[in-house]
Amino acid sequence: MSRTSIVESVRALIEPAVPKPFELVDIEYEKMGSDYVLSVLVDKPGGITVEETADLTDVISPLLDTIEPDPFPDQYMLEVSSPGLERPLKTKESLLQAVGQYINVSLYQAIDKSKVFEGDLTAFDGENLTLTYLDKTRQKTVTIPYKTVAKARLAVKI
């Protein structure tokens, strides 16, 4: 089973089980050193505590044992955590919620000879992102087609 299909299987199972007000932000299945790690990123308005991640681990872990056939080719470690300050923006809904915030966007193809932009997301209409950013000392605005976005995340302004 591919990593993508493992993540999709896990998402389909645990997304309905994550209680409100928590939100499933992302799932990643990656090899780290000699170990595989299933990272489940969960958040809620106002942030999430360590105790809440432990409680959510107690909800999620037994569910993973019910997937038939077992999609995991190797042993893995389950990590339930907060997405942190640089939260990934994986869906159109998460981008809509990020309007007005400082973000980082990586593209599949360059716009104006650049594949990475970091700035204020001023608008998102479901098809195009409008980003205002600083190019050396000049304020610029770029319109980015959503279909060209490889990755987007909240960013910390320095």
Identify the notable features of this structure and list them briefly:
158 residues; alpha+beta; SH3 type barrels; 5-stranded antiparallel β-sheet; 3 helices; 8 strands; 43% strand
Write up what this structure looks like.
It is found in: Cytoplasm. Belongs to the RimP family. Its main location: cytoplasm. InterPro entries: Ribosome_maturation_RimP, RimP_C, RimP_C_sf, RimP_N, RimP_N_sf. The protein is of the alpha+beta class. It folds into 2 domains: 3-81, RimP-like superfamily, N-terminal (GMP Synthetase, Chain A, domain 3, 2-Layer Sandwich), CATH 3.30.300.70; 92-154, Ribosome maturation factor RimP, C-terminal domain (SH3 type barrels, Roll). It is 22% helix and 43% strand. It has 3 helices and 8 strands. The protein is elongated and about 55 Å long. The chain starts with a helix and ends with a strand. The model has no long low-confidence stretch (mean pLDDT 89).
Write the layout of secondary structure elements.
Layout: H1 3-14, E1 23-32, E2 35-43, H2 50-64, E3 76-81, H3 92-98, E4 102-111, E5 114-124, E6 128-135, E7 138-145, E8 149-154
Parallel strand pairs: 2-3
Antiparallel strand pairs: 1-2, 4-5, 4-8, 5-6, 6-7
Q: Helix- and strand-based class?
A: alpha+beta
Q: Strand order within the widest sheet?
A: 7-6-5-4-8
- Helix content bin: 10-25%
What is the helix tally?
3
Q: If classified by CATH, what would the architecture of the largest domain be?
A: 2-Layer Sandwich
Work out the count of structural domains: 2
pLDDT below 50 for ≥5 consecutive residues: which ranges? none
How far the N terminus sits from the C terminus, by CA atoms, comes to: 41 Å
Q: What is the mean predicted local confidence, pLDDT?
A: 89
Quantity of strands, as a count: 8
Tell me the Rg in angstroms.
18 Å
CATH superfamily of the largest domain: RimP-like superfamily, N-terminal
At the first level of CATH, the class of the largest domain is Alpha Beta
Indicate the CATH topology of the largest domain: GMP Synthetase, Chain A, domain 3
Order of helices and strands: HEEHEHEEEEE
> What fraction strand?
35-45%
Largest sheet: 5 strands, antiparallel
**What is the molecular shape?**
elongated
